[in-house]
Amino acid sequence: MTSPQTYPHPGAPEGRRVRVVLDRPGLGPLDYLDLADKASVQGDWVLVPLAQRSAIGVVLEAGVGPDGHSGPLREIRARLDQLPRLMPEHIRFAEFVSRYYRRGIGSVLLTGLPSWLKQPGHHESKSGRPPLVDRMRRALTGHTGPCTATMGPPGPAPAPTLTEEQALALQAIREELALDQPRPVLIHGLTGTGKTRLYQSVMAELLATKPCGQILVMVPEIGLTPQLQTRMQAAFPGERIAVMHSGLTERARAEQWMLASTGQARIVLGTRLAVLCPLPDLRAIVVDEEHDASFKQQEGVRYHARDLAVWLGQDRRIPVLLASATPSLESWVQAARGRYRKVCMGGMASGAERPAVRLIDLVQQAPSKDTGLSPTAEREISAALSRGDQVLLFVNRRGWAPVMVCDACGWRAHCRDCDVATVLHRQRGRWRSICHHCGLSVAPPKSCPDCGQQDLSTLGQGTQRLEVALQTVFPQAVVARMDRDEIKTPQDLEALLQRVSAQEVAILVGTQMAAKGHDFERLRLVVVLDADAQLTNPDFRGPEWLYAGIAQVAGRAGRHPGANRSAAAQVLIQTRYPQHPVFSALTDPQPLRGMDQLWTQIAADRQEAGLPPFGSMALISASHRSAEVLIPALQDLSDQLAARGGPWGARASAPVPRYPERVGGRARWQLVLEAPTRKALQALLDEADPWVQANRAKLHTQIEVDPLGLG
């Protein structure tokens, strides 16, 4: 590797000047000299000097002319040929992501590169040995180069047996895929209808006709990847599958990225980050559980992986399959407009009967103070256990209790740095008061800090408290908990799923983690304890999230025919508002009809208000230690945008606090930007850019396009 050198700007050899982008927020492209024997071209990965260090970047342009820079240029230190060159179509994709989500293209390109491959030392020779990256790639390579058409596929996968309903859906998808520009296909299949089997059939046909073709399959959660990987390997025994998610070690993530980006893996299975991986012969994308909010990145480049998958499909003229039992309103509206092809499935693939959904009115049946269960729910749990069935209790609050209070003076336990109540947890036999926003963990007070009252009370019920209470009420049953406190790694999840599968667990207490994609063969009863909590959510998406969350967890019940057919699987929903439209839809004997009616009503409300998906939205958020500094600065920006947004029909709100207003000792406020179209929204953001750049460091500003929440 050559040492860094500088050359005077006027004497730079013609055609050897390259423009490089790096993963440094606020830093634009930089020009370097390329004096290697073989000139770099667009898409090459390079190691360049940056200040006193080395950094990895991507050549965005080669052979560029002078840009008016008067000082000397530094030389590229090395071209990293072991990293596959980025294709022009991937550069084009990154440019779109950069423009739309308002982040530098260097951040977009480097975000998808695993951290292990970003370390300059792994690309350098040491003690005469080849660089670590070279050795890793040689160990992974099954042949001397990427896939070629003459190699052909490794052999056809066994065709899955389809139900009549699945076969009809497959034929509809084939018709769409035969078009030169296929529309995205929305597979609206209720839980248990065999959506995975359906899209595996589509994948098998595509892989058989595309010798080197690759298919990207995205899932929302790390916990779903091991189970789906097993099913994929069984369905495609001859294919190499790359698995990409943050639960892997850094070295393992680098290996999987290399397999995918060199074309050696024809099936790429991953979470949202996988959409940024450069796949050399991408021929189809599957987005499973497309409605899930986990596809939205909440830091850095705040992209939505599902939306990027749709863009990639349109740009490359390849099919995109969006699968869900509860499609997002955005996808549902696109299907209603005819922009997506929609196929529906309502019959259980296993032949089981769909569970009955019952509402329990808590106004008429007071729940137990210990368990939060109504008398009807306790009886049904007892009956299910006596039959040998498994039970899932869904309460979307982890910890022991969400609030600790003093009944004498009204004091509530709050985080000292955030404007939120702390949650009481029990950790290894000790009580801790934990903030779920900043992570602060302290011992709870033994008496009220305000009035000295000795007896403090708790309000509400979390998964820990429910687990202990159930062990008392049902002492013969083994109770297990499934939440982020108990399940910290993919290995923890796999161990719990094996216990449930082996029927070592009778009652499972879970948060939303238990609702996503799991198949529990003996689970015949689901009880939803905290159904009303989402009704108080001020976000306009609250009703949509409530329906989807309960419908998903309800879908865990009765997925397989029970041994005792006289006792049907059932779902009990405890609520104080049984007449609410969401609950009416959930109890409709025809679930597809019930959801369509609810989504039609919600869509009409959103359209009248100009809210997504009938309008576009962005947030400009900022934080500062002092609200007195923050609010006037945001007000100034709001005034500027109010004077400039009129021509496009776009508008910016006055500064409003985020929830919670303080996190980690910093005040947090934001502007909500609304516009009738994406184009108008981007024009308004263009007007905001100078202010954002000028205040980025002082105020910690952030732009988020298409936010999923306003808090």
Structure characteristics:
single chain, 711 residues, alpha/beta, 7-stranded parallel sheet, 6-stranded parallel sheet, 17 helices, 30% helix, disordered N terminus
What does this structure look like?
The chain is an alpha/beta fold and 711 residues long. The chain is built from 17 helices and 30 strands. The protein has a 7-stranded parallel β-sheet, sandwiched between helices. It has a 6-stranded parallel β-sheet with strand order 15-25-24-16-23-22, sandwiched between helices. Strands 3-2-5-4-7 form a 5-stranded antiparallel β-sheet. Helix 13 (542-554) links the parallel strand 24 (523-528) and strand 25. Helix 1 packs across helix 2 and helix 4 packs across helix 5 (195-209). The model is unreliable at 1-12 (pLDDT under 50).
Compact description:
This protein has 711 residues and is an alpha/beta fold.
Please give the alpha-carbon distance between the first and last residues: 49 Å
| Helix/strand structural class | alpha/beta
Q: Give the % helix.
A: 25-40%
| Percent strand | 15-25%
The tally of strands reads 30
**With helices defined by DSSP (H or I, 4 residues minimum), what is the helix count?**
17
Shape field: globular
Rg to the nearest angstrom? 28 Å
Detail the poorly predicted runs: 1-12
The major pleated sheet works out as: 7 strands, parallel
Summed over residues and divided by their number, the pLDDT gives a mean of: 90
Looking across the biggest beta sheet, what order are the strands in? Answer: 10-11-9-12-13-8-14
